[in-house]
Structures
1.
Amino acid sequence: MAITRARILGTGHSYPEGILTNADLEKMVETSDDWITSRTGIKQRRKAAAGEYTSLFAVRAARQAIERAGLEPADIDLLLCATVTPDQILPSTGCIIQAELGANNAAAMDLVAACSGFLYGLTMADTMIRTGRSKYALVIGAEILSQYVDYTDRQTCVLFGDGAGAAVLGVVEGDRGILAARIRSDGRYLEQLFSPGGGTRRPPSAETLAAGDHFFKMRGNELFKVAVRSMADISREVLEEAGLTAADVKLFIPHQANQRITDAVANKLNVENERVYSNIAMHGNTSSASIPIGLDECIEAGRINDGDLVLLASFGGGVTWGGVLMRW
Ligand code: ACO
């Protein structure tokens, strides 16, 4: 009997035109291009202008993905928007995107898993498709992180960028598609990356605003070690589940958090530079958008061909992590 799998049929990405370079940041906080480049690999990041919001870029990425899948918005029956920077609290950014696209036959919702959001979404969509509950699923990762970055905190403000990426999945029979997908979290590490204010625990007020409680707070050094270990472990797990090894992987697209994290994970997996995708220099860390942007850039550049084994791995606030292995 043929095996039914979920497969990515089309991808897209979009980001703001505004660029924030390391030279710009040198004028804002005590830092240097040298420090940022050597510690993170980042040279620039996209930054939304006033009036630009998350769904704006999500819709553009989604339209591209739907078109490249050869579908119409009305074909989508599941719409998952991974974001930690929604347009507003209610309704979900997923529903806002749905209305803008005219994807009126979809169940739409948001998914909060920080930088792992896109892989959480892929995993959910994979399950829904394989069980016959969804025919065509749209998974989006979209963030305007610049709205939650404290541009007086040199540890975080150099890292984050804005953007969106999307993928449409459908059913396929045979060897292609998602071979293995795993997601994990560990809330014991929640204070390694969090924004303490703005929710019901510390509702927005003049005090929380003045204290900058809505901004991301990060313990970068601690995150670094957990990120490397978790991404390497989950990559091995999905490879093992599929009966494959890192040597079989044609392209590894990790979450773009820091070039040193990418290098350390690749090193642990024995995947040499040529098989690892990095766009961190151009985009910084765009959280849930980083993997779908990377995936779409690789497809546009012709780096992924039919039959290629592609490994995705992520780690983010929560903490959350995930791994997805697919045969293109
Ligand atoms: N410019 C200049 N100096 C800086 C800057 C900066 N932008 N930021 C920190 N420093 C200083 C620190 O104050 C410290 O100075 P001190 O020694 O006088 O106290 C020194 O540089 C070293 O600081 P560390 O925090 O130890 O530097 P590290 O090498 O760990 O790099 C970084 C910091 C880049 C944040 C790194 O820890 C990192 O990337 N961690 C992962 C965090 C991350 O990616 N978070 C995103 C979300 S989760 C995820 O996606 C994985």
2.
Amino acid sequence: MNASEAKVAATLDVDAVRAAFPILSREVHGKPLVYLDSAASTQKPQVVIDAVSHFYETTNANIHRGVHRLSQEATDAFEGAREEMRAFLGAEQVEEIVFTRGTTEGINLVASSYGRANVGTGDEILISHMEHHSNIVPWQMLCEQTGAKLVVAPINDDGEIEMDALAGLLGARTKIVAVGHISNALGTINPVAEIGRLAHQAGAVLVVDGAQGAPHGAVDVQALGADFYACSGHKMYGPTGIGVLYGRRDLLDAMPPYQGGGEMIRTVSFEGSTYAPVPHKFEAGTPNIAGAVGLGAAAAWLRGLGFNAIERHESDVTSYGTSRLAEIKGLRMIGTAKHKAAVLGFVLDCAHPHDIGTILDQEGVAVRTGHHCAQPVMDRFGVPATSRASLGVYNTRADIDALVAALARVRELFA
Ligand code: PLP
């Protein structure tokens, strides 16, 4: 972020932010909606909804292949969104930005393409105990295909990676280190730059699962030392079905394609095909063009709000939520890291998370319950599931008060 962007706003005008989200004015079960499920998917501001509809109303056509006016305008809009995401992630070159369906596809792309080309029998892939299934299963599949071994760095009782243990697990066999930027189940902000430094010292590449990182703070892939960084549009106020994989140019250039088809080729004959340069080599088939345009609008909107202001606001609501939840009898927080963002996971002694979620819904409060696609985290903390209130830019202390009042209702019914 440059100095003028940093000055965009020191504080967040949360009323104006809320007014930008049409869905926040609706009711659920006759109560005002209190949306506390942004880690699963954020709501969309009008500017994103407008960007998508405007694209379909005025510009829609397939990209890259057409000489006609609409195709050229659609291509410009799509490539403009790529440039927006380059700036958003602090990448050096626009060719380092590959459009994907989301974080899951980004990680699978790296595992399939980089992984199969660079990982062999006896090699190791190091992840942490707090990973989302999307940052576990693709690596397990790669291990099955190559004879490599998955190694897991432990986490402590607060839900922080044990860094000494992680450093001890790195070695000459480690080819890939893959960690989440921010844990969706615990809210822990991982020391990614430090992990990157250790990974590089060992000669491994760093893959960052940025699904929860991109919406909450300024991302600078170069400062983080990320060789790959995957994120999802729908978790950063953009559309579903679109995301981005950042990959270091020299790595992407050397990697084989992930999927074959149209758009990703230079020439095709029955004797063989040659491939388009990056990033198109990794974008087989017609992409989610309107989704990319919407994602570009979301990234520009977030940068316009200013990440200093966003972080300050979200950190205030997270701390307020942490102290208010501590007042509730029989409540145990799951995830108490020193560096934490926007996620309040907990269990209550008197009710199962699914019952909690159902009662909260009756009060208009939307939270997620379950294992949050992080079953090993649940095992680590000895719980089958948690309830998770997760915050976005539009949440306020009043939303936390509504959550706490609804939890009091749960206690009335179950305790
Ligand atoms: N990684 C983390 C930390 C997540 O929270 C999620 C989604 O919840 C994912 C990966 C997968 O994202 P997507 O489903 O958008 O591919």
